[in-house]
Fold this sequence. Notes:
By secondary structure, the chain is α/β, with parallel strands linked by helices. It is built from twelve helices and twelve strands. The strands form three sheets. It has a six-stranded parallel beta sheet. Strands 2-1-12 form a three-stranded antiparallel beta sheet. It has a three-stranded parallel beta sheet with strand order 3-4-5. α4 crosses α5 (149-165). The structure holds zinc ion (ZN).
Amino acid sequence: MSARATTSAVRTVLGDLDPADLGVCDAHDHLFLRSPRLPGEELDDPAAAAEVLRAFAAAGGRAFVQWTPAGMGRRADLLPELSRTTGVHLVAATGLHQAVHYDPADLERRYAGLAGFFVAELTTGLHGAPEGARAGLIKVAGDFHGLDAHTRRVMAAAAEAHHATGAPIAVHHELGTAAPDVLDLLCERHGVPPGRVILGHLNRHPDLRLQRELAPSGAFLALDGPSRAHHATDHHLFDTVAALVEAGRADQLLLGGDTTTRAARHAPGPTHLLTGLGPRLTRAFGPDLPHRLLTANPARAFAAEWRAAPDEGAADS
Ligand SMILES: [Zn+2]
C-alpha cells in the first residue's frame, strides 16, 4: 500500500477519531505516572484513574490527553479499557522525558533505535498494550533555560518520528523555560512545522512578553493548572490566558490540568478546567472562548495527517 495515504484524525487508544468528534478536551494531563523524582506520589491506581475520568465526564469532559511517555508507568495496558468503561476519549504518548526520570542503564538501552521505537508506538501499537492501542503524540522535554545532550537526542528522534508519521510533538518545559531553544532545535534545525509542536507549561514561567514573542511561530501554547504541585504558578494562569487572548492568540491556546502527583489529583483536579476556569473565561471573554480553548483548538492540535511507516501498512485496519 502507499505509505503516503493520509487521513486527518486524532489517534486515540481505541482508534482514529474524526477531530470534530473529540469534544471538550483536557489537553495535558496524567492518569498514570511514576518517577524516581516523585517518591510516594505515584499515580498508579486504576480505580483512582477511572474516578478522575468519570468526574471529568460528569462535568462535560469528553477527551483526555495523557502526556506520560514511555518508561514512566503510563499503563498503556489499561488505557483502552478505561476509555471504554468511562466513555472518555484517551490519547496516549510515546516519547521520553528528561534523563532524571529514568534509570541510567534503562536509558542507555532505550537510546538504540529511539526514533524507530517512537514510530512503532505511533503506527503499530504502544509497548505493553496487548490490544495494539497506538500513541497519538510524541512527548519530549527540555531543561531549565536550555537543552542538554539527552534532551537534544530525544528531540532529534522525535523530529524523525514526526516526519515518518505526522504525529504532533508535545514539549515539557522545565519551569516553563527554554521554549525558544526548543523551537530552534525542533523547527529550525529538524524541520518540524511549528504548528505541529505543542509548547507545554508556559504559564510556569509567566514572562508574558516572551510568550507573545513565541506565539508568531504558530506553535500551540499549552497552559496548565491548577495544581497543588505547582501552586506558585497558578496565580498567573488566568492572566496568562488573558494576555494571549488579548494578543490575538486564542486559536493557539490549550488548557490542561497536568495533575502529576497524588496530592495534585485531589479536588478540584482536571474538572476545574470546566467548572472553575471555563466559567471565568466566559465571564471575561464571552461563551465562545472556552469552546475554542477546550474543544476547537485541541481538535486541531492533536489531529494529524497520519502516515503509516513504509513497512507497517498493516497497522491500519
Ligand atoms: Zn505533564
